Amino acid sequence: MVSISVIVPTFNEGPNVAPLVARLAAIESVAEVVFVDDSTDDTPGEIERVAATATVPVRLLHREIPTGGLGGAVLQGFDVATSDVCVVMDGDLQHPPEVIAQLVARFEQGDADIVVASRYAGEGSAAGLAGFTRLAVSRGSTLLTKAMFPRRLYGCSDPMTGFFLVDLNRIDRSVLRPQGFKILLEILARHTLRIAEVSFDFAGRNAGESKASVRQGIRFLRQLSSLRFGKMPAFALVGGIGAVVNVLIVWALTAVDIGYIWAAIVAAEATIIGNFLILDRYVFAEMKADASPFWRRFGQSFVFNNVEAAVRIPVMAVLVESWHISAAVATAATLAVAFVVRFVFHSLVVYRPRAAPATAAASTTAQSEPIRSARA
Ligand SMILES: Nc1nc2c(ncn2[C@@H]2O[C@H](COP(=O)(O)OP(=O)(O)OP(=O)(O)O)[C@@H](O)[C@H]2O)c(=O)[nH]1
Ligand SMILES: [Mg+2]
Q1: For the CA of 91, the nearest atom of ligand 1
Q2: Cα–Cα–Cα angle for 187, 80, 218, nearest 5°?
Q3: Which residue's alpha carbon is at the smallest distance from atom 9 of ligand 1?
């Protein structure tokens, strides 16, 4: 039976401490609960009061200088944990402690380095996310992030969750650069781990206030930039070069008296094909072996790009005619949306592994995504 340290980052969660500890104490495999606290109120006092009578060891690490925010707190929790197998969870009871038994059971099967409690797998639900906007932001950013790290996040439907079990022996903590909320993403994007999942229902917050904010969103963008946005920059570069080539072809063909409509069509198709060949050769090189055959990848990419071009013009017309947006802004907006959709489609659909990618299950040292540079 594995015994685990539960790491709970807290910021002003006083009223949630007692019910959380009571529910954790009832779980057999829990060896200790480590609160890593950055509170500005009496939460540390409350943790000490609860610890005095708890039936499970409760430890408190109060940080005067809250380096790295929530993610930094989790890392410091790892440093003081007595067990090598840790569960990270929120302190507001949005993560039901009873799910820990399932995380441990899944880990004990022996084929995973990390077990993620997912809101988006199987029976899970994100109903506890307040409001349509937050749900949409959560879903959208998850999809885009998965497209940036298609191999390392393969098999993880919820890389943004704050509820997971990790075997510390399988990760190199010195490469982690936590900034804010997304510590799991930081771990997954910088290692090649065997990921397993357990689904759960994300509850509403028990008591107290949310710390999620626009500021956290900005920190998330900073985190993505320190992870170098995975595959996205290379994908964008190929698209940018394609656009320039497109213009050059139109210029050359019209110079030899070919009508501009025909010139535009030839240029568009030539760049769609050329872009695909470059993406396939360089950007998604290491994913080809596991993906569908060449002609199928080509077909999907070709059809997608033609449909996209065909749909974008009428959408632009609607924006300009009915919404009275200027043509330039409408062009920029539709191009930006098309870029994101194209990127997600290629990364997650065209190059989707037909089975679990071989390396994902093999080792923690293989560095197949362009993340190595971020280690410096
Ligand atoms: N140590 C530490 N813990 C934090 C910090 N910010 C948030 N937390 C804790 O991290 C957990 C997640 O924060 P929440 O505010 O619940 O974030 P959320 O679940 O996205 O937002 P809600 O849905 O509104 O609850 C909670 O246990 C917080 O107390 C921080 O800066 N330092
Ligand atoms: Mg919460």
Answers
A1: 27
A2: 40
A3: 10
Rounded to two decimals, the pTM is 0.89
Question: Strand, helix or coil at 24?
Answer: helix
CA distance 149 to 164: 19
Two tokens, residue 32: 């200790």
User: Model confidence over 84-103: pLDDT tens digits?
Assistant: 999 999 999 999 999 999 99
- Over residues 319-358, the pLDDT tens digits come to 999 999 898 999 899 999 999 999 999 999 999 998 876 5
Domains of the chain by range and CATH? 4-226 (3.90.550.10), 232-361 (no CATH)
Instruction: For ligand 1, pick from 6, 11, 142, 179 the residue to mutate: most ligand atoms within 8 Å of CB.
Output: 11
CA of 349 to the centre of ligand 1 (A): 33
Give how far Cα 372 sits from Cα of 35, 190, 191, 320, 342, Å: 32, 8, 10, 44, 25
Name the token pair of 161.
């969750």
Ligand 1, atom 6, lies closest to the CA of 70
Residue 270 sits at the vertex; the CA angle it makes with 345 and 260, to the nearest 5 degrees, is 120
Q: Which atom of ligand 1 is nearest to the CA of 8?
A: 27
Cα(35) to centroid(ligand 1), Å: 12
